[in-house]
Amino acid sequence: MWIPIQLNETSAEPLYHQITVQLRALIVSGQLVEGTLLPSIRELAQQLKCSIITIRRVYQDLEAEGLLRTRQGMGTYVAEVEESDRDKYRLASVIPAFEAAVDAALRVQCTTAEMESILRQAIAKRIEMQSEGGGEK
Amino acid sequence: MDTAVYLNRVKMEREHFLLGPLQLEIPRGYISAIVGPNGSGKSSTFQLMLRIYNPDSGQIELFGEQLTNEEIEVALKQRIGYLPEEANDMESWMTGSEKADFIKFWYPTWNVNRYSDLIRIFEVDPKLKLGKMSKGMRRKFDLAVVLAHNPELLLLDEPSSGLDPISWKRMIEILQKYMEEENRTILMATHIIDEVKRLADYIIFMAGGRILGFYEKDELMGNWHAFFVREQGDVGKHRLREVPGFERLEDMGGGFIRIISSNAGLAEKWFQEEGISVSGQNSLELDDILEVLIETKASF
User: Fold this and answer.
1) Where is the ABC transporter domain (chain B) (predicted)?
2) What is the pLDDT of residues B80-130, one digit of tens each?
């Protein structure tokens, strides 16, 4: 099974952290539903070209958070997510993405006003695209 | 950690070459890759592990046991698959099938179905004489033979040499599949960076007969970053050498300096705190890391 995780190799954020954040987001957002059997540690490591040490750590952390469950000899499954957790985690994956964008802007000395205007434009553009896309269907 | 191969202060001296002292523990259940330039002692290390050579001093253990007598040696070697760097010329006269029949005799766990599966996946014609096979086909045949008895430990010395890209992909897939069973271990020597990226959990750097370091791959790749900074005002080379994990600094032209740090997380913070704007940042390739390590760690 392919898991939609995209790694940023130019970031100094450790791989295990990037994977944990994204996998957690997939679970709490409901894209991976309760009871889904995740790939084996070796399989996910192959997909993401990272070592099994990293994936084992990710699975262990998410298991400790109660988002995953491992059954001996059966594999690792998505556990049930409480509604309150869903809200708590929903923004957790979005915030770092915005922070990365701010970093990129700061590298070229953007002002606060410039950043805000870029953000507004980006939002407006996406919403327009979405409504157009919806219209065609 | 459970250890598959253990080297304790192993040393071997030859007329023009000194290997060691080597201190090394290969963890069981993982893929470890020895990376190093030609002549760094990778192949000799494999040969020492299998007692093809005897060390001048030090101890070697396989699965926690020393090869003290022939009985133990045979029993331990039956659990290992060893692919040497060069194919054996003395076998050229026999066909693939003849060699398989000969090898089978020594391995009680030889699995005929597995052997024929591998031969089929690799598209090898075992009726050919080994000396008549192309370099690539011979490599694939030898790989099939070392895998056919389902060894617990694979020692692969430059496994992909001579393979075309498609066969190389097959090999990667086969090795990944091999690891799916529990407590399987691979130790491989390679110069192919992509091979290490796709397969390895741990990396051992070797140069000049010495081990430069043993690393967890993702940690290593995550820690070594290059930062590009414009030299201006009080941002001089002198100050940039204070970056955490500083390894190397070079002029890139156009007023840009490239700084390599082996502690990217702290370095990133340092640049922010010092108010130095970073124009670019990327992780390093393994060969770049090796080059810096050879420069800073190995004194010949």
Assistant:
1) 4-233
2) 999 999 988 888 999 999 999 999 999 999 999 999 999 999 999 999 999
A5 lies in some domain: no
Regarding whether A122 and A71 lie in a shared domain, the answer is no
For residue A14, the model assigns a pLDDT of 86
- DSSP letter at A111? -
Tens-digit pLDDT profile for residues B13-22: 988 889 989 9
Q: Contacts of residue B180 in chain A, CB cutoff 8 Å?
A: 40, 42
Answer for the pair B60, B134: CB distance below 8 angstroms, yes or no: no
Q: How distant is the Cα of A121 from the closest Cα of chain B, in angstroms?
A: 25
Same domain, A78 and A24: yes
Residues in chain B within 8 Å Cβ distance of A14: 218-219, 222, 265
Q: Could you tell me which chain A residue has the CA closest to the CA of B202?
A: A51
Using CA atoms, how far apart are residues A22 and B264, in angstroms rounded to an integer? 21
The answer to the question of residue A59 being in a domain is yes
Among A14, A16, A52, the residue with its CB nearest the CB of B201 is: A52
Q: Distance, in angstroms, between A31 CA and closest chain B CA?
A: 27
Element (H, E) at B61: strand B57-62
* Strands (DSSP E) found in A34-85: 68-71, 75-78
Tell me the pLDDT tens digit for each residue of B47-70.
999 999 999 999 999 999 998 888
- Taking residue B185's Cβ as centre, other Cβ atoms within 10 Å add up to 23
Full set of structural domains in chain B with CATH: 3-220 (3.40.50.300), 225-283 (3.30.70)
Cβ neighbours of A10 (radius 10 Å)? 12
Q: What is the mean pLDDT of each run of 10 residues along chain A (137 residues)?
A: 84 87 88 91 90 94 91 87 73 80 88 94 89 58
Structural domain that includes position A132? 94-136
8 Å CB contact of B176 and A109 = no
Q: Is the pTM of this model over 0.90?
A: no
